[in-house]
Predict the structure.
Amino acid sequence: MYNYIVILILLISTLNLNDAVFEIVDLSDPIEQLSYVGDDGFCRIPYRFKVLGWNYPTDVGYCRIWSSSAIIGNYGAVDIFALSEGYNFGYITKVQPNDYGDVWVRGNIYSGVLTTLSLTKYSCVPIPYPLQELVPTDNSRVFRGPINTKNEYTIDLIFNLTKRANFTVYTNPPYYCYHYMKDIQTMTLVCGLNSNPPNYTPDPYIHLTITDTLKNNNYFNISTFLTNDQRTPDVSVQKFYTSDISPKIPYSIRNLYYMVTIENYKDGIFYAGVSDQSGRRDSYIVYGNNIKTVMLHSYEYDISKSIEYSTIYNHQQSLIQDTNSISQYSVISKISNNMTVISDNFYNITSLNLYSFQAQIGYLNKNEATLTVDVWEGPTVQIELSMIGGTYANGIYDFSFLVGIYHMKLKFFTGLTYEILKDKYDEEKPKWVNLRVIPLTGMRMILQGETYDGAFSPIQSIQMGDILVKPHDRTVFDYVTYYDDDGVVSYEIYVDYSRMNLRTRTYYIRDVNLYNNTQDMVYSTTKNFLRYPKVILDQQDYGNPYAGIEISELRFDMNNVDLTFIECKNSLYVNFTNSDREMVIRLILNPRDPYPKVFYGHWNETEELFTVEFVLPTAMYSGPVHYQVYYPDLTFDSLDMDYPLIVRSDYADQMPPLISKIVAFPSGVNQNVQVQTNMSIGWTFTIVDPINGIQSGLIKVTSNLGVFEYTYKFTIDPTSEFNYTVEIPIQSQCTSQTYYISYIELMDKNGYISRFDPGNSTKHHYISPLLYIMNNQTDQLGISIECASHTDTTPPIVTNFETNVNSIDTSRYERDLIVTFTVQDDTSVSRLNLPKCKISAVPLDQYFVQAKFLNGTNTTATFQCSTNLPLGFGSIDTKIIVSLQGYTDIYSNLGGISTIDLINGGWNPVINVTYSKDTPMITDALVHNNNNGIVSIFGRNFINTTSVLVTHQNSSVSTFAPIYVNSLYLVIQGISSSGMVLDLRVKNSNGMVSNAYRVNIVPVKYPIPPPCPGTPVCGGPSNGQCSTTLGCVCIDPWFGVDCLSQIIPITPNISTSSPTLENDYSTTIDTGITVTLKSLVSVRSLVELTFDGTIVNTHNLNEWIYTNTTQLSTPNIQEYSYKSNFTHQGRITNVTVLVQYFLQKTPVSFASAKFDMMPSTMKYKIELSSYSFSSTFNSIQLQMPVSIKMDQEVDTCSNSDSGKINSKSDYLKLQINGYSLYTRLINLGIIDNKVHLITNQFSDDNSSDSSSSESSKIIGINIPYYDHFVQLDPDFSMLFEAVNAGDLPNAICYSLAKGRLTTGQIIGIAIAGVFLIAVIIAFLYVRHLKEQERKHFTFIQEKIKSLMNP
């Protein structure tokens, strides 16, 4: 990292085009050039290059591509679709079929001769016809899925292609398929069933017609994904649809929901159909499990249509359909297209170029239109109108903005247009003069460029892909110089592209006058010269095979998760070949569902892997989770990988909160409420979410007069049912009107959202919270009030207006603007509806600030708007203007005042703006985890920085000189890597100091491993290697904590009565006697312990239910399930033991630990359900007796040993002579869906005596208090040992000559003898150890040979 930053700084410091020689750089992408003959009979091969050595395009003379072959074009020159903005050149060559050759660039520059550069060779061949599958057998083509709630399935077809190709895919009804190219050869099809097929038996094959660009048809048949399902599902259907609403509330969009409960049909194909294909359709699994599933199909359609809908399911490969219908509704007029212009003026007041447009516009309801005006032609910019008088049915709107003197056109939301007639037209587009990228750390960059506009119009915006940057947003945008004498603007843009859509790479620039004046830097496709640093182009899904990037490792903390009771905070660990640690990766859950969830991750220094932390909510639907891993800009799909993430729930709840009842008050029904005194109206909502629980909500109420909009919010502890009341105070002096629910949003604790947003079909569709009451209670949504008649139609007037400043520097950290104003009315000013301040600036920038009530009397009210202006706001034209809107009296007469009227009233609503850039500002900082103490600082106005002041926690200050500085970015080095909180401040040459920005220096904690065991260490270099984090890493076939053991290949004796393994192994010992070894592993009991280890309760596990759960899909693992339970304090605790026997070496992971299961090893996967603890301070211990025994005692030695393998696992080894039973215990467990540290202890088994021929222990796995469930994961192996038990300390040995003595006792007797004899004994003992070691190494090899070759 440090070297990279230093090199980057050197490159940036030498980047000066004025001093460079003329040089051509090839930017062509070889993958893009891999294309076949197109539909016009030619190949179009793109070439890109740039020329270094000048600044402006006026220096360019003649620069073209030449070829050694007859490419279509004059004299071999290719100039079709040429683009030459700045120093970048792009050509698309038009090449005849079956042609190939060399390509080079040459030309002249007015100020010198351009060098010649050879480009990539080209070739043009037609696409192979007919297409051939490289794996054509039907058995190899198997659909995967369903991959989403739409019951879509996917399959890969591999063709004999060598270049990029485009196809169109057609299928026979009722099937449909769409496709994308996974790579150059692989076409991925996603197929499903049309939503309105008739009753009939579809073809058992999907007949594909794949048409290439030359209109050649290729035909393939694929077996259907419909199964020959013999089941007839039990189906029940509930229909919910929007009914008529009275009083008439103008909602133009209706909803239809089809809730289907399906039983006896797990994994069957079931969906709903609709006759109208134009509306938005979504499908959701909302409740269910393997026995019963509830699906919700939603349709959003226009009220003017009548539709038919149906249930459809697969039975014996036939589609069974049941059709229903709903009738057409009467259409309510949406918009009344009448507009009367009140005023149209252009003002020049105190050098203020202000255009003011006011009009009276009539329409019915704000939910039916966007209150905007488009400034056009060309790309439109939407400006929100200010309602300053009248009602919705007859409103007065103001549209005022600062602008230049050029002709403009306006297009209002009513569909009407209006022109601002000016003498001058700005028809000249801004042009890119220069554009370059400076890469920074952490997926950040600085975009430097110059633009040219002969009309000297200010830049309105720059768009990079899906990011729109406006010049006032100086957090990312900064002018280096404004227009010089030639009309050139220099600027810099700071871009964090870590979360951007990187597949759209078009750059647009737009000037403020917006009359057909946009210039893009697009080169015939969305791919262009500028690329995001370090990002691998996906080349529209062709990138993976050429990127050199593949997943090298992937695992989860928990990959099989029970979500019945609690959520799971999980982690993904992943790495890639040739990866860059600076990249930000993504994990996308359920990418093909309507609302996929995206999580971001970074490089983890401790794990040395990319890590993404993510949350799986409770009660997800059981099964494998479809996910994608994204490494910019490549996507890896779980459907193509063998890294499953599986969740399970007893009963899924993916339904958001719903309203089960609405009661309007005071009438309780939809009647006109007579207002005779001060009173309240409103609604009481009964909100239900039976499993996850309702957590928060937002409800808006609107008046048809356009005056009031009330917003109500609540947040509560999750509960299954909640009554919430919305109350509106009504004064006796009022105006007749209708209040109605205009917006509802509810969310449960898992983030599932329901939303009611009538009339707004442009937003993503959510399940409506009114689902349950659509059929009969939607008449409660509106309340009409009738008030006594009155003659007051005059709104309040402004009597005072002031701002806290007359000028402001928007380059500084403090940019506070406070607007205080007072309004007066002859009757009474309403304090219920708060007005707004509109803040506007060039170029067409505006935003609204909600006012607060300060004080007042019955007839007056003083309000205040406070805002911190956006950085750089108003700096382009050095002016900000203010207008007011939305103040009312008690009769709902609405008032507002424009900027011009404020000026004419004697007030000053114009704020002068400067942008001095004299004070630096920090907006972000990135601490690099390295030993060089590098910190990158991002912000503004850094160009004159001399130092960075670092304030420590003890208030001491250190000064660092930056090692690199640019106006938006600087780097310092030497910050201590120890954990601390620091405040950073930037100081410039003028002595100005920035705001303080706090960073937390988190030291990277590397685990300190125990010393590696063994003599020699890890058995020597041929046996294993010592890892600083993993301990001994053994080389096959060596195994064990010290790599001095090898696994005995045995076949386990599987018990059908309990999870007990009793394995027999016969062998011949050194004396020539045949003996039998017996190993025992069992699960005995659960013991509840107090904090001091006192036993409170013991629960013996004597009765088990056995099931052979070996799966055909995993032939290398034999699996056996055992289930038991006991009752304590009225609660049943279930114990499940899954015994797995591994036939081959298999990598596994558990609770963030990764390890290999070797052949002939046994794993116990143990799960406990909830337990009724006597105290929350207690723990529970799972007891597992283990032992190894030889059937005779003569000439035997036994030993037991335990300790740590590494920071994540312990071991226990019970040994007799050269054989052992080895237990590996991960000291981590999954407790309530979190990875927890657990402890393992080993105690003597009182039920058996350890002797020279038997070694036994009780493994105690200590589990802290928990609420819901526990998962544990020990494993066991029988081993050959290179070191005999008798040669180990504290061994118990027995021979006819010596009887039963420990090794320590034998040595003690020797020490008590004569010193010379002791020396002799010691010498013989050492020689004995070495000889025994040599014998056992030979013994192991001979045993393995005999076992492998019987």
Notes: The longest strand covers residues 338-349. The mean pLDDT is 77. The first helix runs from residue 2 to 13.
